[in-house]
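User: Hi! I have a protein structure encoded as tokens and I'd like to know what sequence might fold into it. I'm fairly new to this, so please keep things simple.
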């Protein structure tokens, strides 16, 4: 989960174009402009700025050394992100990607302009604009302009021009160059972009490209390969000002799917309108488009569970406590169960944190420390996120290579719940990581000995997008329910988090009598000391999954493992075997036929390994309602078996207390 968290830079990267106005060695310094034009530059060109977050709730391993940050940056209350200039007594213009109203940051919620005297004014009304043509015309609150620029439609290749902008946030800089010609916009040539050799830097975006007389022939938008690209005056002047057109091409995908979906999102906002309303309208339309597009993406994927691509997933079962995902294998388009590569970390008091990362998402299984209650370990988002941060190093880079370990994000900004397609209740939480304009999103599934956690750290503007994606991920996540007897007792008191498929579960055990009674769905187990001497540290492992019952889909417990103690050397396994689909191969069919014939190891004949000092015996258990496509196998194993007779007696005792209704 290590990540460079430094965005304390002069330009807020989240606002920049994919091709930003980066510096190039080709331009020349110096203006060559008449004094009248220079006065216009002084009074009619502005910085576009964002207000820095006032508070930082993050806890670090040491105090941040702000003295290492240049004085001008650390004392400025704003980030400088681009340039704007006045075009009438009331209006300014900038590049759309500078004041990106299609992007709703959770950190930088307002836009401002700052004049040469340091006065700051909030953006007010939008009077024109287009994200594709990359311009935005707007007013600011409590400010009019005595001096402003005028547009000029006429220019030709070879004409001298000057780029004017807030280069690198160091103030307004004028650079000269020549018009190099035009080039059609990339998608379909609907308009031309102007090319020039004038220089540019981060922060120049939104500034004017002017003639020696100070007339604006274009709006600076990007620098690529030492060529400055600008939106010509005629493109801006001829565009409709009745509405703001927003259009963006997307390519959607999802972690668990192999297919992709191309989508063009288009919407309009009526003008004039308050800029916050324009942004809200665009975002609302985008969220509807995202939901519809992602729903279509899943609809176009191989059908989940009921289609012909599900033989593998319907035959799968969990073998460990770490969560796994149902996903579409791009090689054959079949749904399968993942095998995530993971790493484990020890926690205090016999706890453990296991972690896997795939596709920008983090998956965790927490085995809670013994000293922490199951309620706190499973339902306290701050405790869970702090535990992860304090176990797996995550850093913030303040300036240069000055790094600080993050120990806590503080209290979450929001907490909620999500009930997934399997009837499980997840706790949702998110934290605004303001210094990096990101959001930490966490989904927590309470389990008997500690939760499963799915999380991601993403650009804050896309909180809704990733919450949508994570809900689908949770719908397709498989998690085992595993704990010792004491932990099961505690977990079953958290009624709210008992999933639908375990609502019928009852469990009672007696330490003095060394026995337990367990009932879940069709299975009832009553086991006493004649099987094993059961105690508080005996463990029950339940592996739920999808399977077919009587031709219908059912989600329930397919595998039950019960260990006498934490060492796991003495145990029993009850498994629902289902007739395999021929696509699974001859080996699966042969194993099924062996079950039907009750062959070894399910022939009730004990087997002993003298070398390992272990013994085992298995049987096929008859259900009360026989299904020809289902067989329940029972496997019993122990160390120091003390002869075949002892194994047989224990198996008989186990079978006598075992009932399966279907």
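Assistant: Happy to help. Inverse folding works backwards from shape to sequence: for each of the 662 positions I chose a residue that suits the local structure. Here it is:
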């Amino acid at each position: 989960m290590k990540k460079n968290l430094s965005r304390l830079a002069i330009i807020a990267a989240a606002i920049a174009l994919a091709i930003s106005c980066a510096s190039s060695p080709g331009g020349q310094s110096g203006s060559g402009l008449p004094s009248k034009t220079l006065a216009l530059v002084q009074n009619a060109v502005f910085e576009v700025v964002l207000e820095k977050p006032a508070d930082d709730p993050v806890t670090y391993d040491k105090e941040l050394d702000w003295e290492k940050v240049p004085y001008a940056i650390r004392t400025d209350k704003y980030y400088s992100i681009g340039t704007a200039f006045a075009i009438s007594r009331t209006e300014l213009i900038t590049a759309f990607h500078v004041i990106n109203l299609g992007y709703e940051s959770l950190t930088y919620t307002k836009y401002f302009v700052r004049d040469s005297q340091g006065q700051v004014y909030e953006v007010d009304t939008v009077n024109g604009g287009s994200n594709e043509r990359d311009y935005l015309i707007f007013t600011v609150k409590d400010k009019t302009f005595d001096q402003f620029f005028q547009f000029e439609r006429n220019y030709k290749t070879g004409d001298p021009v000057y780029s004017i902008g807030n280069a690198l946030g160091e103030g307004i800089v004028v650079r000269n160059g020549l018009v190099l010609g035009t080039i059609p916009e990339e998608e379909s040539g609907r308009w031309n972009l102007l090319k020039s050799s004038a220089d540019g830097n981060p922060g120049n975006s939104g500034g004017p490209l002017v003639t020696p007389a100070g007339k604006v022939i274009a709006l600076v938008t990007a620098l690529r390969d030492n060529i400055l690209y600008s939106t010509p005056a005629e493109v801006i002047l001829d565009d409709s000002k009745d509405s703001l057109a927003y259009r963006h091409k997307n390519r959607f995908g999802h972690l668990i799917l192999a297919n992709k979906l191309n989508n063009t999102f288009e919407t309009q906002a009526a003008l004039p309108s308050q800029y916050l309303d324009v942004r809200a309208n665009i975002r609302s339309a985008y969220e509807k488009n995202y939901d519809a597009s992602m729903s279509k993406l899943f609809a176009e994927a191989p059908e989940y569970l009921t289609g012909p691509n599900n033989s593998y997933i319907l035959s799968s079962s969990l073998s460990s406590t770490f969560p796994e995902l149902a996903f579409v294998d791009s090689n054959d388009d079949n749904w399968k169960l993942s095998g995530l590569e993971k790493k484990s970390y020890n926690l205090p008091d016999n706890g453990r944190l296991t972690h896997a990362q795939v596709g920008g998402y983090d998956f965790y299984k927490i085995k809670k420390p013994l000293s922490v209650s199951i309620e706190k370990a499973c339902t306290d988002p701050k405790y869970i996120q702090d535990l992860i941060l304090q176990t797996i190093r995550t850093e913030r880079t303040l300036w240069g290579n000055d790094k600080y370990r993050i120990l806590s994000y503080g209290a979450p900004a929001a907490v909620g719940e999500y009930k997934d397609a399997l009837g499980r209740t997840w706790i949702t939480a998110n934290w605004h990581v303001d210094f990096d304009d990101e959001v930490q999103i966490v989904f927590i599934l309470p389990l008997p000995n500690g939760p499963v956690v799915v999380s991601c750290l993403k650009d804050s503007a896309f909180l809704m997008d990733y919450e949508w994606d994570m809900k689908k991920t949770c719908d397709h996540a498989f998690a085992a329910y595993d704990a010792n007897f004491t932990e099961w007792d505690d977990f079953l008191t958290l009624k709210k988090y008992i999933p639908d498929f375990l609502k019928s579960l009852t469990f009672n055990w007696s330490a003095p009598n060394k026995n337990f009674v367990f009932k879940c769905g069709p299975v009832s187990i009553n086991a006493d000391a004649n099987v094993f001497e059961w105690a508080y540290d005996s463990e029950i492992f339940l592996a739920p999954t999808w399977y077919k019952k009587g031709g219908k889909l059912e989600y329930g417990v397919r595998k039950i493992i019960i260990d006498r103690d934490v060492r796991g050397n003495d145990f029993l396994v009850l498994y629902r075997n289902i007739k395999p689909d021929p696509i699974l191969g001859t080996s699966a069919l042969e194993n099924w036929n062996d079950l039907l014939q009750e062959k070894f190891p399910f022939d009730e004949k004990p087997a002993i390994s003298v070398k390992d000092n272990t013994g085992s015996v298995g049987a096929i258990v008859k259900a009360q309602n026989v299904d020809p496509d289902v067989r329940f196998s029972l496997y019993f194993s122990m160390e120091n078996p003390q002869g075949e007779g002892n194994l047989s007696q224990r198996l008989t005792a186990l079978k006598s207390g075992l009932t399966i209704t279907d």
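A useful reference point when you look it over: The chain has a mean pLDDT of 93. Feel free to ask if any position seems puzzling.
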